[in-house]
């Protein structure tokens, strides 16, 4: 493919809102991309020696307008203007296929200018739940099954992350206290058809007995994890996959591998980016108006010079092409689930103290306490003066016959919370 093909594709997608690239050409792009991706290592190697800078983009989630804004503001990719796209290209937005095809075409035209990382939504199981499968079937009714198989093949060969100057690691989700770069470099990434299913080896799905769960966890953690404010590393109970990793985990990981900082995506931020863990973890999110029109800015990050200094550029796509405005009830629901997520993190960080406090009300170790005792314990340990009685139903279960709270359920994975976050 050549530059003129890319220009034509961009113009077609930009001007003709309902343009559908013929299935024959879609299949060609997917096949060629798969062939080229196979040649790449698990971790892309990017250098600023020639370009003097590199641009990092976060989640796009099928929002074509945001991708076109980035190209308009920052220029098309090239060896002199390289990009790293950090996963989650599809799902939720209506233009997932167009975004995916544009990124793959850029990769084919400028192999030294485009680096693609796998995200947790480059996954058939996630696509089934969050819209991309429906989109492909709607746009390519007669060729959907064939195209979906080719898309899955591309997913399996996407690199797992990117190293810039061997000084900055870019992965979609984050890390855990077990993450090891040397191990990640040696994994057969192709066998992970879906991170939510056992790996496939030589065309045969692994069983729970023969799967290398520690290796599986290596990939899971970098695609699904989130940073937390407190120290330590705990299972990411809200997502049901990956970990919450603290500043101490980040510091140890960076020191071990001689890195300056970590860049990740995976979470929508009001400003399009967020800096945490003492400026050592950067979250970049490039889908503006993610929840509703005006809900958040998108952003991309430029790493400049050999020192890889950071420069953030914010933007917001036109509200005319943004998603429809949510109802008041939907908006309240989004705010509530975001708050529940933050609260769950704090609760998990305080687990040992909470268990100790709960136990003072349960001298016979029956595992249950009154609602009042549960609320008092939550307020005392977390220091948060919240309407705990009202929040109890979202955070813990009660015995239907006695009304007493099963206090250990406060720490158990709550599928309802994970579903309402749409992750």
From TrEMBL:
InterPro entries: Calcineurin-like_PHP (IPR004843), Metallo-depent_PP-like (IPR029052), PPP_phosphatase (IPR051134), Ser/Thr-sp_prot-phosphatase (IPR006186). It holds the Pfam family Metallophos. Its cofactor is Mn(2+). PROSITE patterns: SER_THR_PHOSPHATASE. Residues 117-122 form the Serine/threonine specific protein phosphatases domain. Its EC number is 3.1.3.16. It comes from the Eukaryota. Keywords: Hydrolase, Manganese, Metal-binding. The keyword Manganese applies. GO terms for molecular function: metal ion binding; protein serine/threonine phosphatase activity. It catalyses: O-phospho-L-threonyl-[protein] + H2O = L-threonyl-[protein] + phosphate. It is an enzyme of class 3 (hydrolase). Belongs to the PPP phosphatase family. This is Serine/threonine-protein phosphatase. It comes from Nezara viridula (Southern green stink bug).
């Amino acid at each position: 493919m050549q530059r003129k093909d890319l220009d034509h594709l961009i113009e077609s997608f930009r001007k003709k809102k309902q343009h559908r690239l013929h299935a024959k050409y879609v299949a060609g792009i997917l096949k060629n991309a798969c062939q080229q991706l196979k040649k790449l290592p698990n971790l892309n190697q990017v250098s600023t020696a020639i370009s003097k800078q590199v641009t990092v983009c976060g989640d796009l989630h099928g929002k074509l307008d945001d991708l076109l804004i980035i190209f308009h503001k920052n220029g098309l990719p090239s060896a002199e203007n390289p990009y790293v796209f950090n996963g989650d290209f599809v799902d939720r937005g209506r233009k997932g296929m167009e975004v995916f095809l544009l990124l793959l075409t850029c990769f084919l035209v400028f192999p030294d200018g485009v680096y693609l990382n796998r995200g947790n939504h480059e996954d058939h199981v996630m696509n089934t739940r969050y819209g991309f499968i429906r989109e492909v079937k709607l746009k390519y009714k007669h060729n959907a099954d064939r195209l979906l198989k080719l898309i899955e093949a591309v997913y399996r060969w996407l690199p797992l992350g990117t190293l810039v100057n061997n000084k900055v690691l870019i992965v979609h989700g984050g890390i855990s206290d077990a993450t090891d770069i040397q191990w990640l470099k040696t994994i057969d990434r192709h066998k992970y058809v879906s991170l939510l299913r056992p790996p496939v080896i030589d065309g045969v799905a692994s069983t729970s007995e023969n799967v290398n769960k520690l290796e599986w966890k290596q990939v899971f953690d970098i695609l699904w994890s989130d940073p937390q404010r407190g120290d330590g590393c705990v299972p990411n109970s809200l997502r049901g996959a990956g970990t919450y990793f603290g500043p101490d985990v980040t510091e140890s990981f960076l020191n071990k591998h001689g890195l300056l900082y970590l860049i990740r995506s995976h979470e929508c931020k009001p400003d399009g980016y967020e800096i945490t863990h003492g400026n050592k973890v950067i979250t970049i999110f490039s889908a503006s108006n993610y929840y509703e029109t005006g809900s958040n800015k998108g952003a991309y990050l430029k790493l400049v010079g050999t020192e890889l200094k950071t420069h953030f550029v914010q933007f917001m796509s036109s509200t005319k092409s943004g998603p429809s405005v949510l109802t008041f009830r939907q908006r309240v629901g989004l705010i509530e689930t975001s708050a529940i997520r933050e609260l769950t993190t704090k609760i998990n960080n305080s687990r040992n103290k909470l268990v100790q406090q709960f136990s003072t009300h349960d001298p016979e170790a029956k595992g249950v306490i009154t609602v009042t005792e549960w609320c008092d314990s939550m307020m005392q340990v977390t220091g948060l003066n919240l309407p705990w009685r009202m929040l109890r139903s979202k955070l813990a279960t009660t015995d239907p016959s006695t009304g007493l709270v099963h206090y250990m359920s406060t720490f158990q994975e709550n599928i309802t919370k994970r579903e309402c976050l749409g992750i």
